[in-house]
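Duplicate of #3305? Posting structure anyway:
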């Protein structure tokens, strides 16, 4: 049950590394303030503490230097899932999650668990997406939806400002704000990674997006681990799934076995723990936790698509003239679908409109795509006219120059660009084709 025991002076506890703590060989399941303070007092003294690292607990130090220790794993009966949604809604969140619409599972406002696609799954392969009905009443037995969560944090169209002419003066009102308080329910592990990537793009650099930051600051994330592997998923290659390890407020693993239906719940933050305090849960038995872990391992073993990532950025950067780019160009329609569905793509354009009176003007930001002709149009011409150059730009940015720019790959292995490409272009196969012939090509140079 416990993974590690250490005896340390309290002042030398490596807090940053801790996932779990049990003091005096007695597990302190302490979501209560009194326990927290008692431990904090211990920490002020020179007591030697016996510390056991426990994979199901979580510890953090608050701004007053109090140590919080919590058993963060519990069990939520599926019949009580509505309580979680209600707790989030009462806490002021607009709950968003998967619903059925237009023969697909899409993310939209989620008023109750009755809106979830109960008993539905999906079948995905290159250029193919179909809903399939299941015999069980699972809530989350499907894979990445066509849309990603970016449409809420970084909407397809956003008004940036309005200008009104009043006599000789101009009034400008900034409308690039967002005070929405979203709770995303059902974020897949790969999608969590995609959100972190967009955080880097919109918040870490010199030019920050205030509206994105506001929406992100207010965001509550309920991650749902994947209990089924889609035909286009390759998250295990990109090390983003199928299990969420961190960066969520709550994570759920759905278990529907032997007539029982429940979720193993982990609180990933103090906020997540406080929301779970409002929901009826019980202690998860070791067998129940083991069942959820086994489902995760089974999902991982069923992911058949792979992306070989070793040396990938350099491979692509050194093969810009590889003949395979011409081969892809014969198939690619430059429709831009792959960029629209990708949870990390962030390119945009700006459009201005004025009314007929000439008194009012508005500026909008819209998603754009490196596949459109105008995207690469600059004074003096267009530097990316061919299909080959546009596909190459997209793929090499995602998997190579993105790493130079942001320190991580721009791909999280969700598989959307493969499923939703109308001609079934599969980036894992295109990379493999270049990798497989790269040596010959270099020799022929
Ligand atoms: S490039 Fe494709 S597989 Fe990778 S994150 Fe984007 S949509 Fe998903
Ligand atoms: S790769 Fe597929 S989805 Fe992307 S632009 Fe080409 S045809 Fe469209």
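Output from current build:
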């Amino acid at each position: 049950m416990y993974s590690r025991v250490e005896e340390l002076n309290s002042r030398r506890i490596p807090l940053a590394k801790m996932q779990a703590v049990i003091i005096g060989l007695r597990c302190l399941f302490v979501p209560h303030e009194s326990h927290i303070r008692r431990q904090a007092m211990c920490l002020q003294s020179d007591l030697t503490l016996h510390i056991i690292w426990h994979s199901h607990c979580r510890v953090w130090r608050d701004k007053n230097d109090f140590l919080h220790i919590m058993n963060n794993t519990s069990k939520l009966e599926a019949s009580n899932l509505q309580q979680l949604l209600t707790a989030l809604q009462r806490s002021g969140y607009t709950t968003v999650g998967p619903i059925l619409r237009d023969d697909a599972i899409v993310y939209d406002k989620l008023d109750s668990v009755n809106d979830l696609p109960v008993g539905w799954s999906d079948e995905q392969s290159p250029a193919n997406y179909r809903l399939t009905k299941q015999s069980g009443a699972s809530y989350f037995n499907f894979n990445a939806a066509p849309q990603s969560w970016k449409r809420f944090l970084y909407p397809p169209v956003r008004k940036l400002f309005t200008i009104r002419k009043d006599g000789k003066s101009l009034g400008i009102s900034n409308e690039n704000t967002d005070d929405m308080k979203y709770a995303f329910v059902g974020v897949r592990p790969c999608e969590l990674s995609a959100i972190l990537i967009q955080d880097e793009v919109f918040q870490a650099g010199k030019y920050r997006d205030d509206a994105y930051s506001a929406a992100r600051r207010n965001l509550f994330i309920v991650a749902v681990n994947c209990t089924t592997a889609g035909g286009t998923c390759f998250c295990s290659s990109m090390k983003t799934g199928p299990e969420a390890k961190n960066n969520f407020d709550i994570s759920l693993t759905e278990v529907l076995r032997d007539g029982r239906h429940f979720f193993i719940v982990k609180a990933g933050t103090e906020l997540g723990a406080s929301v779970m305090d409002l929901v009826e849960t019980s202690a998860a038995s070791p067998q129940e936790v083991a069942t959820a872990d086994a489902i995760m391992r089974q999902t991982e073993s069923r992911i058949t698509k792979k992306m070989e990532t070793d040396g990938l950025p350099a491979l692509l950067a050194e093969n810009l003239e590889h003949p395979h780019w011409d081969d892809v160009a014969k198939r690619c329609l430059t429709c831009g679908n792959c960029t629209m569905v990708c949870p990390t793509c962030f390119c945009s354009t700006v459009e201005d409109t004025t009314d007929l009176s000439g008194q009012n003007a508005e500026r909008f930001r819209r998603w754009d795509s490196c596949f459109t002709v105008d995207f690469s149009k600059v004074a003096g011409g267009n530097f990316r006219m061919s299909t080959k150059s546009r596909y190459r730009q997209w793929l090499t940015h995602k998997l190579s120059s993105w790493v130079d720019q942001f320190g991580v790959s721009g791909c999280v292995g969700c598989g959307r660009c493969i499923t939703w490409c109308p001609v079934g272009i599969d980036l894992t196969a295109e990379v493999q084709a270049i990798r497989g012939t790269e040596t010959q090509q270099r020799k022929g140079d």
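Confirmed duplicate; merging threads. The two ends are 58 Å apart (CA to CA). Confidence is low (pLDDT under 50) at residues 1-56.
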